[in-house]
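Quarterly update from the structural biology core.
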Amino acid sequence: MDKSNLPFVYYRMPSEAWALKSESKSREIKSLGTISDSPGFILYPFTPDSSAKAHFMQADTVRKITLEEIANLASQDTDWDIKDFQDTDSYLKTKEVYCKNVADAVSEIRSGTMQKVVLSRKKTINNSSGNPLKIFHKLCVKYPSAFISLVYIPGEVLWITTTPELLLSVKDNKVNTVSLAGTKSLDNDEIWGEKEKIEQQIVTDYIHGILDKRCKNIVLSGPDEVVAGNVRHLKTSFSAELTTDMWELVSVLHPTPAVCGIPRDTAKQFIAQTENYARKYYTGFLGPCNIDGQTNLFVNLRCAELFRDKVNLYIGGGITKDSIPEKEWDETELKSKTLLFAFE
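Predicted structure, tokenized:
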């Protein structure tokens, strides 16, 4: 794709890669209900605020692209308008702080105020990868079943995502979504324990309750074990027929207990008081809209924000009454490895 001061997106569905370019600046979204039916790409944060606006990029050009083309583009010198890195919260990135946050969350859950909360952190590494398309290409090759995207809004956003989690897919009022929760290493052959099963069931029950009020003919399958990078998860799949507006359904689904907690408002407040940093697009959602009549939205996990010389990886995990702080830290370290190799 040629150099431009306008936004563009590269994304790879499990079956094929696409390049999407806009001929106009990205449009900030004040409400999901204001999104038009025109083709485009949405980038929506965990919570829209001054640190991360909700964006919709109109798709003036959309075309399939091969991995060979991407590799060729990745080898070229490109003038990217990328922000400089500023570290204002390094103290929040320590194991000590994260483990304390987890311990506080476990105490709150055991007191009965919450069933689950998702706590996250940032991990900063050096960025010597050059053209960001090199990273995108590496991820496409390594993770053929993930949704992978590189979103570029000049001077504002350069974000890469490798997520295993579908938020919502809609075509002709046919809805598909998943409940994805519980994590174990691929090297860990232990059976799924009570902690992971409870975590997964909480998300499943929540999503089923949301769909039950806005869909008909709901069908569930699972839970099944799925592999995502170097970890495995429990997943329950849903299919249904939509009986309301798609964006109304999205607005009540997001954020699910898989990325926030339950009760949602209580968990969200605990996250704001405890994490003390802006998640930005981590645990938000993103994806192509109205492309060939289909919208595919994904939860923004296994993701990173790119700067000129640094990268912020965003990682987290679901906390329940049985969580052990040190093991939760180890889980975030494990999840970070999904992306780390691409910056080497």
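Residues 240 and 272 are 33 Å apart (CA to CA).
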